[in-house]
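User: Can you fold this complex?
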Amino acid sequence: MIAYQLSIFAENKPGKLAKVTGVLARENISIRATTISTSDTFGVISLIVDDPQRAEAVLTGAGMTVHLRRVLAVLIPDKPGGLDKLTQLLLKEEININNAYGFVLESSQKAVFVVDVDQMEKAEKVLEKNGFQTLDTQALSAIEPSCGSK
Amino acid sequence: MYWEKDIETIERKKLDELQLTRLKNTLAKAGKSFYYGKKFKEQKIDAGAVKSLRDIQKIPFTTKDDLRENWPYGLVASHKDDLVRMHSSSGTTGRATVIFHTADDIAVWTNLVARCMYMAGMRKSDVFQNMMTYGLFTGGLGFHYGAEKIGALVIPAGAGNSKRQIQLMMDFQTTVVHVIPSYALHLSTVFSELHIDPRRDTKVRIAFVGAEPHTEKMRKKIEDIYGYKAFNSYGLSEMNGPGVAFECPEQQGMHIWEDSFLAEIIDPQTFEPVADGAEGELVLTTLQRDGMPVIRYRTKDLTRIIPGRCSCGRTHRRIERIKGRTDDMLIIKGVNIFPMQIEKKLMEIPGVGTNFLIVLSRDEFNDSMTVKVEVNKEYFSGELKKMEMLRKKIVEELKSEILITPKIDLVEPDSIPKGEGKAVRVIDNRKD
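Assistant: Here's the predicted assembly.
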């Protein structure tokens, strides 16, 4: 299943992320995960949110440059070797990872690994065939990540 | 102290007569070119009817666009076989302005540059290091020839390579340099890095600084750092290059060589001549060029004639340091750049949005150009790599057009404020 990542182009300067989170907070949109990559004077803010389509609309409305990008949100066990099994599989299938980040769902139980790969359809099939569960937007919205408290 | 005393101190009345004779010759010669021949005929201009210097006002101006539109040979007035050299103005590609010279023209030009250098104090015993670009740019070869004419030892160092410049200066005991002012300041930092004190460890006593507008304050700074005298030089490729106007030891304005150039200052709005002392646009006519005479060329440079005689004894009038331009041409590191060149190139690149802003700054001592470029909303795919590639492509494309490497900042669509009416394309933060 395909999930959507929200990518925002922004200059690398103070207040840019605050503007994004401000709009999302006002609209009551929940952020599941976030990653920022920068290149000198500009960067890309990537977010996994519970309602990507609405988030895109409100951020665009606020004058931002937003793109909805298809990614795979893969459910992995939160234990040693959990991520390795996934990356070894992608390696075997010669699928290249362009961007990736993860978040824990239930401490020591489940985590989600978000991957942006070069061959989306192939990756989706390969993961399914090998017993990995991928989450779509609805599934991502339904989950409530834990804070990993001990 | 004079290279040619007779000419440099000629009585004003005789200078006017000389100018009139040479103006008539120039007009007759220019009429043989395709461009002026057609123009004189169409506008019923009779070169023979010019009876006084004031009569030149009846002849239309020549602009850079005229040179471009009649590229390459439209203004050539000699037989093509008699041309021995061409130069091209810096910074523009494609339809650049090209100037052609006969052997006599080169000799006249060389003599003018020698006159400038001698006036500033250079002699045949000097070692002259020419830290300018050789090639199409006139600053390199123009000064090279002038220095050889004086008989100095010339080190044709060319531009850049700071450590080698300093090495040459030390090894061969350079006494005179020709340098772009911003580069002189940059070079001082390299001296510091090498723990060499240019005041104590070099023998340089004279510098010719030009090819880039600079302030009096900047000159003083250069003189303080190096402990030499820095003389301001004015020239443009359309008028040969260097050797149009130059400072004498008084350093109070640049003597414009009126035996070779007829200078007018006009109001750039009304095109009417202004009185000596009033600021306006400098308009120049070649008086001693056979290959390609140019009549009433609008330099777009703003200056004024300094009234009164100079205490050095020379009768040729002086112009003040160039104050600015009447068009939007930018001069960076000696390269001429029009914002339109940047705009045209940017708009050809997919991914570039609608607006851009050129910011010029002088960090430490170096001039630099940053172009803020709005990206196209549709082009953004969420990938940082793609944006980084776009940035690199813009750098490469602009570099090939304007010959200097700009810094590119990609910014969000609609983030550059749009001014009322004409968009503000340039912010010049260069201070002394």
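The beta strands of chain A are 3-11, 31-39, 42-49, 65-77, 97-106, 110-117, 133-135. Chain A has a mean pLDDT of 90.
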